[in-house]
Each structure stands twice: as C-alpha cells, then as structure tokens.
Write a structure and sequence with these properties.
The chain is an alpha+beta fold. 26% of the residues lie in helices and 25% in strands. It has a nine-stranded antiparallel sheet with strand order 1-2-3-4-5-10-19-18-15. Strand 29 and strand 30 form a beta hairpin. Helix 7 runs antiparallel to helix 8, helix 7 packs parallel to helix 10 and helix 14 runs parallel beside helix 17. It is globular, with a radius of gyration of 28 Å. The protein binds calcium ion (3 copies). The site of one calcium ion has 9 residues, from loops.
Length: 842
C-alpha cells in the first residue's frame, strides 16, 4: 500500500514566504505537524485502554526519525504508571483552515472533561488546555498536563531550567515523599500497582527541577527541545522512580477553580538544518547460503537522493578489504514515510566474510556459506525455552536464572473477578472448590507466558502442540538440557541422555494434565491475584512468599510453623469452563499420549484418560449450549483435530472427517487454512494434491502481491502488537508450499522470512532474534530481565510496530514496549517450527 503525499496548499505558500530560513511546522495531509526532522503528532494514536498507559499515545514527537516524546495529555498524577487511568478521546478535530488540531479528553470515573488545542506557531507548537467546568475538587492539585520524554534518548544529556544547568540522571535516583493511600487517585479498576508494606501510604516522586522554561538536550541538536510555560510552573519528574518503564515527565498542574483556557505551553523541537536520515541498509545478519537470492533493501529519507550503485566488499584472510562486486541500486518506490531501493548481489556465491557499502554507509560484516542457517534455532531451544519453565529452578553455569516459583500453589479465583491481564472469572467457579480455597497439585510443569509469569492455558496447549509437531516432523534428538522433575531443577548446557523436546513436552503436559485432573477441566489461566506482584521483574521465585495465605494472620505476618502468612500474594486459578479450550486440550493430550508412551508411560496414560473424558464432556456441553459465543470457540483450530487423530490411530474415518471440515474453509478463507491443508499432503493421495493445486496458485498470487505491497515482500502487520508471529507463520507456510508444489511456489520465496527476521526490514537492520544473527542481533527485549536492558537468547521480538499514520519503529535501547519487544512462549515455539521447516526445505 504505497502512499503518495502532496504538500498542502498552505505549506507551499509558506515555503515561498520564507525561502532563506528553514520552513515552519505545517499541518500535512496526514494530519500531523511537520518540518524536516520534526513530526508532532496529536492523538494520531489515542490511548487505547487495552493495557491502559502503553506509553505510545497522546501528543507524540518523532524527532529526527525517533519517537522520543509521547504521552501528552491531561493526567491525574505526577508520573503515571501503566495502570493509572488514561483519558478517553471523545473527539478529534483537524482544522486545515486554521492549521490546528483539537481533541476532547474525558475521565469517566471522575466525570472530568478537558480539551487540548495544538496550534503551529512558527517552528513551535502551542499546546493549550481548555476546561468548560473546573477541575473536580478531588482532582484539584492532582490533574495536570503531562508530556513524557524517552529516558534512553535523554539520560546523561544536559538540560537548562530557567538557565540553570543540570543533567538527566542515568538511573532513577531523585527524591520522593509518601502520602496517605486515601489521597491516591484511583488506578485501573481500583487495583493498586504498589505494595505499601502495611504503611497505608503511597510513594510520590518529587520534581527534579521547577521553572518556566526548560531547554532539553542543548548538547544534542537532534534531541534539543524548548518548552515554555509563562503562567504556570513546569515541573520535571523521573517516572522511573515508581516503575522501571517510566519516562521523564514534564508537567504543569491545572489551576483549581478555573475555566476557559487554563494552561498554555510552547513546545519547540529543534530541527538540524539540512538533516537527512541515514540510510538503513537492510540485509540478513545471519548471512546467505551461496545459491540464494541476495537482495539488500535500502530504506531512505524521501529527501535523500538514491545513489546509482552499491558495492559488496570482501574481508580477505589477511584482513584486507576488496570490492568484489558493484551493481545498480534500483528504486522500488514509497512505502509509508520513506522511499526504498534494492541492491541485488546474488551473483556472488563464494564463501567468505563480506560487508555492504552504499555511499558513506558501511554495514557490519556477514557470511556467505552453506552453513549459515545451521544453528538458527538452538538459542531458542537450548536457552529461551528452558528458562521459561515454571515451577523449576533454572541454572546456567555460574548463574541461577530463577529459583522454584509459586511453592504455595494456586487458589480458586473468586467468582466475577475482572482481571488486569484481560482474564475473567465468571459468576460461578465451575469447580468443587470454594473461592480462595487451595486447588492442590497445580504447582507443577508449565511455561511462563511471555515477559510475565502466568500460565496461559491456551498458549501452553499451543506450546505442547508445537513441540509435538517438532518431534514428529523432525525427530530432533538434541540434548543440551538437564531436566529433573524430581529435583525441580533445570541446568542449561548439561546433556542428560534424554532428547530435550521430550522433556519439554513432558513439562508442559504435567501442568495441563494436573489442571484437567484437579479442576475437572482446563483453567483459562493461572495468574497473579494482585497487581502489585503482576508487574514483577527478575527472579520469578520472589513473586510470592512461597507460604500459604491465611486470612487470620495480618499482612506480612508469618505463622508459628513458618508455613503460612497473612500476605495475600498467592496466585489464582481462573476456572470458568470453556469447552472449546477443553477440546483443544483433548486433541493435544491424545497426541502427547502417543509421543510420551515410551518415555513417561504413566503421564501418557493420564493424558489419554483426560483426553477421552474432556472430549466427551466438552462435546456434550457444546451441543447443549446454543449460544454462538461458545460454539465459535476453537471451531477453527479443530480442522486439524481429525488429522491429529488419524496420525495417532491410522483410522481412515478421521481423514474423511478432516476433508469434510477443510474444503468449506478453504473456499471461504484459504489463507487461514492453507498450512493445515499442506500438513495433510503426506497422508492423502494425488487427487487431494490436485484439488489443492488451484489454491496454491492463489497462494502464489498472494505472495507476489506482497512484493507489490511493500519492498520486503512479507505480510507487514499494522496492529497494536507488531506482526512478527504472522510473518513467522507465513514463512512456515511458504516453505511447506514450496516443498509440495515447487512448480508453483518457487524456491526464491522461502528466503524472504529469514531475511526479514535476521535484519532486512525497516527502521534498523538488527536481527529480531535475540543472540541470533551474526554481528548485530537486537540487544534489548521485553523479557523478565528487561529492567537490565538485556535479553534472553533465542527470544523472537514481535518486531516492527506501526504507529499511525505513517511511522514504523523498533526500539533497541528501550525494552519496555511489549508491542515491539516481547516474545511469547507460543510464538517462540512457532519460530522453532519455522526454523526447522526452513532448514529442511533448503
Ligand atoms: Ca500473560
Ligand atoms: Ca535433555
Ligand atoms: Ca503466599
């Protein structure tokens, strides 16, 4: 979807008016204020409310290509956290005549409305807040206008407040005070982000500086911004004092008792004269096998002039460098904000160490060799997955990743609980347990969901399914991990004589089967009961105190026998019954029982028993329940159920059933079912393959249409969570399609997804896979060690996040945006399937 933009009429006039000077900020036809190097966005991205303050909404500034400022809004605390209330946008008016943007904001809970008007004033914008009714009394002195600055782009840089020099702190070390809890503005759904340790008081940061004019980063022209507020004090805060994902916050408290225009700021972001964004030369950091297409995609500023040639340089054995190929750079065209060009160096096939040269840009080096893809999955299988094993201590060399978490087990979630991680316990428990009663036996097996530590049952089912697919398709005997369920201990890089995949399947199944046996059906999730330990970072064994909760004790008090405490930190099982989920579990249990039959016969037998019971009960429940909500659940995934059953039993009736389900879906939405259809090819006859052929031709047309859609030729997502998983699944499907229909789906297509994953993509050219990809994998991820600005090897980032209306990004100095940096257990096991499928298709 390449987009064309035209300079609006008013902007063209302005350009004529001030020829000698840099042009002023103007409202462009994408409804944001723009001059070269500066984009000021006004609620192009409103607060979505999905996870509340996602730190990517409100008034935002993309400053020399980096989105360094966001969160411009009326807020109710000095440094809002993720679960503080966010305003709903009630209106947004873009006035192209006056060139200003107005948004209405509302806090429903407080019946509090405000309007923000942003008007361009030369090289600055004026931000004004209007109130039709005064600030509600309970919020007087609390409500203010806030604007947030990205810490990793401002720390260690200087600032001047009313001329007084100072420096943004590298680490959160400013001053705080405490206030009584009664004065705390309500947080999301009434939850609390903090554990007050029984003091009855919450912490509030104190300002770093106060004044009327702040100049941020005068020492760094690309980051320099001047903010002036003549009437009301500007206060600068460090949001990291309360939460590691906090930003630097500039704010002014709204005056009490006033209406009309109550606040005016002038914000002037500096633009470096003549600035042109440095070209981003995208290529595979993993390197290339000799006979594959090798095409670098060069992302360029629209004002940049495309150079006619680029070169491939070879690093020789004596360390010298020699140009081995020079060729044309061909313009592809525009895609959102930038223009793109391609450099094809496929003709170079000799093994060796190379780098690319385009103008002044020299990339890091990469390898051409038949072996480059040999180890693309081992960081994920040997490191990321075992570190995410729940209910185990996980050790690596001298380092303990985490101790054994959740020793006290899981309590029945009370009915009608609306949870902060988007879960829900219905009006009944659907179990034999009383609210908050201990459900025995659930603290075993399972995998942490993602950057958090809950067991998402649906994801864990997918994990076991993915691992079974890996085992049955590729028979990986790899053994690099010691797993002792008896010792509850995992040691990385210590072979123990058992293929790791079998142990990983067993570990997932131990939790899932326990759920079925103890609860009677599958839980939705095993998750945190209190928000103040949900956002835990670091060693999972410290999330709860490991002691059973006893409400007769006071919080923080321990029983005489040391086995229980009065701290209500135990995890909960959310047990509302979902027969669709039970059916998915039944399918996976059947498959697991066949895989584990020799290795762990008793678990295999338990799995089979639960599979039969769940299938029978869930089918009856679904038949009895005529509401469309329940019937639609899991309906789609069930196409593969009869295929699984056929593989398990060899009974032909299941293959017939599979085809009965498959073809109507292929007719309606072929893209959704094509990979399942390909999975069945080995089990069916030539007639089946022939019937698939027209769909494969459609699929080829789809693949080719992606080459028109964007310069990378992969399906790029524009949702609130970047589309990495979608790209990985596309990669698996393309490989399978090429395997069975090489005459329709050419081999050249299988290299697009590895290219994208390992560095050939917009924004930067780093590999999305942690520690995988030659010289420049991404360095920071949203894992449970994100507070250390680090990664867990083998994690796959969602990748390229789209911000409306035309900005893609992936921060590699700031891990805390999950939509671009958080890998998940289901996604990463999906990457293992892609990696193995790709390597076996090569
Ligand atoms: Ca979760
Ligand atoms: Ca092993
Ligand atoms: Ca506890």
């Amino acid at each position: 979807m390449s987009m064309k933009r035209f300079l609006p009429f008013a902007a063209a006039l302005l350009l004529f008016a001030c020829k000698a000077e840099a042009p002023d900020l103007v409202l462009n036809d994408l409804s944001y204020f723009e001059r070269q190097g500066v984009n000021v966005l006004v609620y192009s991205n409103p607060f979505s409310g999905g996870f509340n303050d996602e730190k990517d909404s409100g008034i935002e500034i993309v400053h020399h290509g980096v989105r360094t400022v966001q969160g411009g809004a009326v807020r109710l605390s000095v440094t809002p956290e993720q679960w503080d209330l966010v305003p709903t946008m009630t209106s947004r008016t873009v006035d192209s005549l006056s060139g200003c943007i107005e948004v209405g904001l509302r806090y429903e809970w407080y019946d509090f409305d405000s309007r923000i008007v942003v008007t361009p004033k030369g090289k600055a914008v004026e931000i004004s807040v209007f109130l039709d009714k005064p600030v509600p009394e309970t919020l007087a002195g609390e409500a203010g206008f806030n604007l947030e600055f990205l810490p990793s782009q401002y720390w260690n840089k200087a600032y001047l407040m009313d001329g007084r020099p100072n420096r943004f702190p590298r680490y959160a070390v400013s001053d705080t005070r405490t206030r009584p809890n009664e004065e705390k503005v309500r947080q999301f759904k009434g939850y609390r982000t903090y554990d007050d340790r029984g003091t009855g008081r919450f912490v509030e940061p104190l300002p770093l500086e106060t004044g009327h004019e702040i100049l941020l980063a005068p020492d760094t022209p690309e980051r320099m911004i001047k903010v002036t507020s003549e009437e009301i004090d500007l206060q600068l805060y460090d949001g990291r004092m309360l939460a590691q994902n906090g930003w630097f916050v500039l704010r002014s408290v709204l005056p009490a008792g006033q209406t009309g225009k109550v606040l005016t700021w002038t914000v002037e972001p500096n633009a470096v004269p003549g600035w042109i964004r440095e070209p981003n030369v995208g290529f595979s950091q993993m390197g290339y096998v000799p006979d594959q297409p090798k095409v670098a995609v060069i992302e360029l500023d629209r004002k940049d002039k495309v150079k006619s040639k680029a070169s491939l340089m070879k690093v020789e054995a004596d360390g010298s460098v020699k140009e081995v190929f020079s060729g044309p750079v061909r313009l592809w065209g525009d895609y959102y904000k930038y223009q793109y060009a391609k450099f094809d160096f496929s003709s170079v096939t000799e093994s060796g160490v190379y780098f690319l040269r385009y103008g002044d840009v020299e990339t890091n080096n990469f390898i051409i060799d038949p072996s480059v893809y040999d180890k693309i999955t081992v960081a994920t299988s040997d490191v990321w997955i075992p570190i995410h094993m729940n209910h185990m201590a996980v050790n690596e060399g001298y380092r303990l990743w985490h101790g054994e978490p959740f020793k006290e087990g899981y309590l029945q979630a009370p009915p009608s609980t609306d949870h902060f991680d988007l879960h829900w316990q219905g009006p009944t428990t659907d179990t034999k347990y009383k609210p908050l009663q201990l459900i025995p036996g659930l603290n075993v097996g399972g995998y942490f969901d993602a950057g958090d530590f809950d067991i998402e049952t649906g994801s864990n089912i997918s994990v076991v399914q993915n691992l079974i697919t890996l085992w049955e398709q590729f028979h990986s005997q790899r053994d690099e991990t010691f797993v002792s369920e008896e010792q509850r201990y995992v040691d990385l890089h210590r072979p123990d004589g058992v293929p790791d995949i079998l142990q990983y399947i067993e570990h997932g199944m131990l939790n899932l089967v326990a759920q079925s046996e103890q609860i009677g059906h599958m839980s939705q999730t095993l998750s945190n009961s209190v928000l103040d330990n949900y956002h835990h970072l670091g060693d999972a064994s410290g999330i709860t105190d490991g002691l059973h909760y006893d409400p007769r004790l006071k919080p923080y008090q321990k029983s005489a026998d040391g086995k229980s405490s009065g701290t209500p930190d135990d995890m909960w099982a959310f047990t509302s019954r979902n027969p669709g989920l039970d059916l998915q579990a039944a399918t996976v249990f059947a498959a697991a029982s066949r895989v584990l039959a020799d290795y762990n016969p008793s678990l295999a037998a338990r799995a089979l028993k639960e599979s039969l019971r769940l299938e029978k009960e869930a089918t009856a429940l679904m038949a009895a329940d005529t509401t469309s909500r329940r019937r639609s659940r899991g309906g789609f995934g069930n196409i593969s159920t009869p295929l699984q059953l056929y593989v398990s039993t060899g009974e032909k009736q299941y293959l017939d059933r599979f085809q009965e389900l498959l073809w109507p879906v292929m007719e309606r939405m072929p893209m959704a079912a094509i990979n399942v259809a390909l999975d069945a090819v080995p089990y069916l006859d030539d007639a089946y393959k022939e019937k698939l052929r027209p769909y494969m031709e459609q699929y080829r047309d789809y693949i080719l249409s992606l080459e028109e859609d964007n310069p990378y030729g992969v399906p790029i997502g524009t949702g609130n969570w970047a589309g990495g998983g979608q790209v990985v699944n596309f990669g698996t499907t393309v490989c399978n399609a090429h395997r069975w229909f090489p005459d329709i789906i050419g081999r050249e297509h299988i290299f697009k997804v590895p290219g994208w994953l390992f560095g050939c993509h917009p924004y930067h050219n780093y590999s999305w896979v942690a520690a995988v990809g030659a010289t420049r994998p991404k360095a920071v991820f949203y894992g449970n060690n994100r507070a250390d600005f680090s990664f867990i090897p083998g994690n796959v980032a969602p990748g390229l996040l789209f911000r409306h209306p035309d900005h893609f990004e992936n921060f590699d100095d700031w891990p805390f945006l999950w939509g671009q940096n958080e890998g998940t257990i289901a996604g990463n096991t999906g990457y293992l399937i892609f990696g193995e499928t790709f390597r076996n298709t090569l």
